[in-house]
Amino acid sequence: xxxxxxxxxxxxxxxxxxxxxxxxxxxxLNLPVNVPFAPFSRSxxxxxxxxWTRTNFNNPNQNRSKNPSDSVxxxxxxxxxxxxxxxDDDSSFRLVDGKPPPKPKFGPKWRFQQQRQxxxxxxxxxxxxxxxxxxxxxxxxxxxxxxxxNANNMMRREPLKSSVDIQPEWNMLDQIPFSTFSKLSFSVxxxxxxxxxxxxxxxxRSFDRITPKNERRLERFKNRNFFKVTTTxxxxxxxxxxxxxxxxxxxxxxxxxxxxxPRSVYSWDIVVxxxxxxxxxxxxxxxxxxxxxxxxxxxxxxxxxxxDINSSYSLGVEAAYINQNFSQQVxxxxxxxxxxxxxxxxxxxxxxxxxxxxxxxxxxLDNDMYLVARCEVQSVVxxxxxxxxxxxxxxxxxxxxxxxxDWRQKLETQRGAVLATELKNNAxxxxxxxxxxxxxxxxxxxxxxxxxxxPRDHFNxxxxxxxxxxPREFASQINLNTSNMWGIVKSIVDLCMKLNEGKYVxxxxxxxxxxxxxxxxxxxxxxxxxxxxxxxxxxxxxxxEDAEAAEPNAATNDVEEKEVVAQA
Length: 568
What we know:
Blueprint lengths: L118 H38 L14 E7 L14 E10 L14 E2 L8 E2 L7 H8 L5 E4 H8 L9 E7 L2 E5 L29 H18 L7 E3 L16 E11 L2 E9 L1 E5 L2 E12 L2 H4 L3 H4 L4 H11 L1 H13 L4 E11 L2 E13 L1 H7 L4 H16 L4 E7 L5 E7 L25 H5 L1 H9 L2 E2 L4
Helix pairs in contact: 3-8, 3-10, 4-12, 8-9
């Protein structure tokens, strides 16, 4: 809108010959000064009329004396207006915006334009990828730091203690590295049952349906007695020895310790007595064999203090307590029992004993050499009118930070991962359980998953799950070779049969994968035998604390309040 005057439109000439302005030669027009005009056809590409972004300094060859305001209309060097008569050249066409395109910050631009998305969506995905990368980097750093701390802890860990004090008068006869055990192999025929003693209660199948969401409290069975009787104190074995039923005698606990020796880390000891042409494998009173190792093969070190609830000794007592109670809680306690040839040989008349059956079995090791072992099964189940023997054992979770797996979260969805972790941390214990099930010819071995109610409460526990495995299949799963197991037993038996009559002890070295054989006095490990440890500068092995060597059985009885060691 014009104020104070009228807007005058200039003269617009009419072109009767075609489209566009007429030929300037036929017109006498007053055109603006210094404004170039180029004729064009409809097929020509239009260029710039004026470029206000260009200055005189961009073209050093330009005449500086020329009026700078006219430079915006100067297209003498611009190819957008070709000279008349020149052929069309598409390559001379340029965009209006003469600025070079910005280079992408992270590589070629086409990488991010393969899938066209909204900018907001793309930004969200980029941020999400950045967060995931940060989490992955933090996880790797944490894993690296944990491995470094574990390695440092392993380096700072105190040396393990020997299970028995090495006395000055003991004579070391031989030491056998575990590497020689891996090459041994021996096949034995199927064993024969000489005698079955005790009584078994039936297994309660409702425990197979337990999950972490419907856990059951672990009960205590203080009125039932459990027996951990060594070989020479067993009246049945003494009777079989007098009848010359075999030349070698042992229990399933002792045999499984020998069979799985290459997997052991903690120190253990077995007493060997050569009487005439017979060989007896015994355990000491208060031996570590009465307890169960926990996290023996784990890389995570346990607290060294013996009174700590998570020390190896305290966890061994707790595991034995859990296994005894678990083996009785999963039974149908209605008084219905399966009785065998003889009653429990270690129980007094009228005494309430745990559900257990002893199978005295004989294996042929050589033409004139037989081995008799007392094997245990804890329960029986009837399937299709056939009775099957079961062994009952329980794994215990004490603190998930040591294993790295929370059973309450993983048992339902990742049970295989939980089992793999336990096989890594308790390889020796689970191999021994499997070997005992194979020795007893159990049809099924039940593994219970028992956890503390609270990580700092080692008295109250809950059952989270119960899983059954066939012993032979489970043995192949954990790479337990029965031929190698019997090869180890056969080699130790042959070695001990070459010894003179007397008493010997097999001691697993606490710091090296090897076992040593010592000749000990005839009254060693008796009640009137006085032990005097070697001086520090003469010790062959690191000695244990006196309390650890002398009191484990008493501590077990104090905690469990129901273990009775029968003396023949």
